[in-house]
């Protein structure tokens, strides 16, 4: 799903993408935890012999990239935080997200709910995910098309891994963020169904931070590729 990002940034950096433990082409073998995933990311870095890297994370990956940077600031040159949900408690934004999700699903809401509430076949898993992902795009006319592209090729979703990570209670990161000296770029889509106000406290906490808001949904590189490329490549180049 991040192939377009890799292509866009290939001129600005050597790009390495990885399938997290239990996801994509990686083996579905736990344990699943934030701590373990941070360690896995460090193992990928060490495998390539890179002393320091720039990190770009999207959505949950933005949280992961932030947690890695807080754990290993000496190993990160720059952090790009794309469409994350900030450092506040989920209770401050999740209800609004659920409302926005249902509203964006529109005519597909009943089908999505019926799939959500029953045991699904592999084919129905894919349909359920495509419907849910379609809510992440501001352009409703192309939303299903974009979501179908995210599911091609289809490796399935590891719902066990997802549930395990979501069960973890996030620590208060504000104090650590206030002392983080790694330059950070926050990139948002203004039409993201996850309220962007949830990221405001992260922006206030970070001492070296800039923020770019694009007219897009949860995947801003899909709906504003030029704006995304300009913001991220410029940040990585230091311009």
TrEMBL record:
The residues covered by the AB hydrolase-1 domain are: 9-117
Per UniProt, what is one GO molecular function of this protein?
Answer: hydrolase activity
Asked whether the UniProt record includes Hydrolase among its keywords, one would answer yes
Transmembrane domains' residue ranges: none
Question: InterPro entries from the entry?
Answer: AB_hydrolase_1, AB_hydrolase_fold, AB_hydrolase_sf, Peptidase_S33
Query: Is DNA-binding tagged as a keyword?
Result: no
Keywords of this entry: Hydrolase
As for family, the record states: Belongs to the peptidase S33 family.
Q: What is this protein called?
A: Alpha/beta fold hydrolase
Q: Which organism is it from?
A: Amycolatopsis albidoflavus
